Amino acid sequence: MTSNPLTQEDPTVHAVYAGGQWRANGRNLTTRDVTTLQENFARKVEQINGRRALSAEAKRIEIARAYRDTREQIQAAGQMVVDHVTTERARLSRKLFGYEGTADAQTVIIRRDAADRASKLTDPAEAQRAIQRAENNGDVHLAQAIAGVSFANGWTDVVQTWFAANPQAGDTAQQLSQLPDPSDGVWRMQHAMTYSVVPPEELSGLADYQVDRLADTDLDGDTAA
């Protein structure tokens, strides 16, 4: 199965594989939208500074309001991405590590026991040994349960062991591996930097709460003579 170039370029794109190729099937806000918001904000600042009827303080207040509006829009876009990725990871995880279809009573008991045993694993090395034993013994339910626990704990090597032994998971596993992990500190930092707006020089040195306080200032018809 070919990789999804749409997801590789932008993990917020939702795509389907049909007719031998990936096709976009809707998307959330992306970094391209953020760039547009940032550019629009820069133009607003320029327009405000060009209004000769406004005093310097009135211009700062208007710029603070425009900055706050842009910041909130970009932060909302960033949260949409986190929510989308989190939802997709949960959906794909259920598809990979859950059980689809109707199970008989014995299978339910076996899977429940496997889930209980897997939940007691405390470190990736132990999980790696356990999943290899399960695969060698043909215990598919236990192996799947261990893979699910490992995925939840971020034990990537263990999950990859399960993927390698279960090639039928191919497409779903590939889609899951292409999505970022919102709990990863590095990703969250990069995400926060991407979904942000730099204050203009008129607001230099002000923290966001100070900008918000300035934005809430009543202009009182403050205009230049």
Commentary on this structure:
With 225 residues, the protein is mainly α. The protein has ten helices and two strands. It has helices spanning 5-9, 31-49, 56-97, 105-119, 124-136, 140-153, 156-165, 170-178, 185-194, 208-215; strands spanning 13-18, 21-27. Helix 4 crosses helix 6 (140-153). The model is unreliable at 1-9, 11-18, 25-29 and 221-225 (pLDDT under 50).
In terms of topology, how is this protein built?
Layout: H1 5-9, E1 13-18, E2 21-27, H2 31-49, H3 56-97, H4 105-119, H5 124-136, H6 140-153, H7 156-165, H8 170-178, H9 185-194, H10 208-215
Antiparallel strand pairs: 1-2
Helix pairs in contact: 2-3, 3-8, 3-10, 4-6, 5-6, 5-7, 6-7
Overall shape: it is: rod-shaped
Which parts are unreliable, with pLDDT below 50 for 5 consecutive residues or more? 1-9, 11-18, 25-29, 221-225
> Which range does the strand content fall in?
5-15%
Q: What kind of sheet is the major sheet?
A: 2 strands, antiparallel
Q: In DSSP terms, counting alpha (H) and pi (I) runs of 4 or more, how many helices?
A: 10
Task: Kindly report the average pLDDT value.
Answer: 82
In short:
The chain has helices spanning 5-9, 31-49, 56-97, 105-119, 124-136, 140-153, 156-165, 170-178, 185-194, 208-215, and strands spanning 13-18, 21-27. The chain is mainly alpha-helical and 225 residues long.
Short key terms for the protein model shown above:
disordered N terminus; 225 residues; 10 helices; 64% helix; mainly alpha; 2 strands
